[in-house]
Specification:
- With 95 residues, the protein is mostly helical.
- The chain has a domain of 38 residues: Orthogonal Bundle (Histone, subunit A), CATH 1.10.20.
- The chain has 3 helices and 2 strands.
- The protein has a two-stranded antiparallel ribbon with strand order 1-2.
- Strand 1 and strand 2 form a beta hairpin.
- The longest helix has 19 residues.
- The protein is flat, with a radius of gyration of 26 Å.
- It comes from Fertoeibacter niger.
Length: 95
């Protein structure tokens, strides 16, 4: 499925990137190449192939899901310009 310059312009706008008019033809060609590669990948039979997280078979390291305060309150508050009673102190903005 070839991409034309109008579609490339629309994709650039949606991606919020500025592409000069002179570069739209090259962008359209690159996008067409990417779409062609994706179509090639869709032709591969992956029936029975398990998804993998790495090329080496290993389990992800896991830790217990426990809520803690991190035990670094003093270190965090050391960066604050003003701290009182163990919290960040901020100016009052609502009366």
């Amino acid at each position: 499925m070839p991409i034309d310059t109008d579609t490339a312009r629309k994709v650039a706008k949606l991606a919020r990137i500025r592409v000069e008019e002179t570069d739209l033809a090259a962008l359209a060609q690159d996008l067409s190449g990417i779409i062609g590669f994706m179509e090639q990948l869709n032709e591969v039979d992956v029936t029975g192939v398990e998804p993998m997280t790495s090329v080496t078979p290993m389990r992800l390291a896991r830790r217990n899901d426990v809520v803690t305060d991190g035990n670094i309150q003093a270190a965090v508050l050391a960066n604050a310009p003003d701290a009182r009673e163990g919290f960040f102190a901020v100016p009052k903005v609502v009366e």
